[in-house]
Specification:
The strands form two sheets. Strands 1, 2, 4, 8, 10 and 11 form a six-stranded antiparallel beta sheet that branches. By secondary structure, the protein is mostly beta strands. It has one domain: Sandwich (Jelly Rolls), CATH 2.60.120. It has no helices and eleven strands.
Length: 154
């Protein structure tokens, strides 16, 4: 039997401290129907703690469309640090986003190791895309500092 060890980081939305403790990354605008990164972070544990058993994610973002009634897509991705191939850790989701307010969404759960996501040092990002039918439509997004990544070792 082995003892599991968990390493947790809150790498998103760092910056100026706030009076209520809630921080967001810079609001990023994507003006194409191709996915664009809102924020990419590295999770680099201080030392190897053994073989990676699984990852636990608790990821929160806020998104907004620029045109009322237009949709936007979002998904979370991860990869081994230094690799080129991103792995979707959430299915791409289409939202009828509001043009007047940011809407917050949280994705959480555990994921086992797999191809291109099986090391202790990883990168995680939020990507969004506009689904506007006009060239003037954009998608906006930001990540929240309560988002976390845990790595469970055996």
């Amino acid at each position: 039997m082995y003892q599991a060890i968990k390493h947790t980081e809150h790498p998103f939305a760092r910056g100026q401290l706030t009076s209520d403790g809630v921080q967001y990354s810079t609001l990023t605008t994507v003006s194409t129907t191709s996915f664009g990164a809102v924020e990419t972070v590295s999770v680099l544990p201080p030392a190897s703690l053994g073989d990676v058993l699984e990852y636990e994610f608790g990821l929160t973002c806020s998104v907004q469309a620029s045109i009322t009634g237009e949709n936007l897509n979002l998904k979370w991705q991860a990869k081994n640090h230094g690799d080129d191939t991103w792995v979707d850790i959430s299915d791409p989701v289409t939202y009828a986003a509001s043009a007047t307010a940011l809407k917050e969404y949280t994705y959480s759960g555990n994921r086992g190791v797999g191809t291109n996501l099986n090391q202790a040092n990883i990168e995680v990002r939020l990507v969004i895309a506009s689904q506007a039918t006009t060239n003037s439509g954009t998608a906006k997004g930001k990540t929240k500092n309560s988002s976390y990544v845990s790595i469970v070792y055996k």
